[in-house]
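User: Hey, quick favor. My workstation is busy. Could you predict this chain's structure for me?
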Amino acid sequence: MKEKIINALKWRYAVKIFNLNKKVSEENINTILESARLSPSSNGFEMWKFLVIKNPEIRTRLRAVSFDQPKVTDASHLVVITYRTDVVLNATKERIERTAKTQNQDPSELDGFRKMLDGGIAQKEQNGTLESWVKAQTYIPLGLMLETAALLEVDACPMEGFMPEKVDEILNLKEKNLKSVTMLALGYRGDDPMAKYPKTRRDFKDVVEFI
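Assistant: No problem, here it is.
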């Protein structure tokens, strides 16, 4: 298993050119998305949503606000990763309800936990870090989707090269209390010259220090 993980990560790279004729199976896509759903999150808030864009017309519109990157339309699947903007209103309430249901408890038994969650949100709202904190959480499921895809030998390319406000407008995200953060193109590499280059990574000793 250790060798499989490392080999998958060595095989993976940010694909620029996708095979137009090869599609990722529904089973593999659902496995990748399930890995995102099972991602850890701060306080278990899970303040994200993953939008799988199937409509070709919408993908063409998204490409236009993504600096005309072909992978937006050419990849088998396109996932837009978003974060929720209704944290103050709903995060604690949903977390308590979810926990009570899962653990078969009365929500009133979790009042101490509720106060802790509300206090953390209030503090971040007061010091102006709430949105950046919620936004940063979305990179956790992104990483897990990349790892899962690599283990399944599904190619991927994470993307920040787009105009978020335009993407939000196209997908009507404001009405859904969402904002876009990243996109993830999934599929299989085509005639991509980047595939032949070895990984350029800093040495283990340069990025890891045991103290």
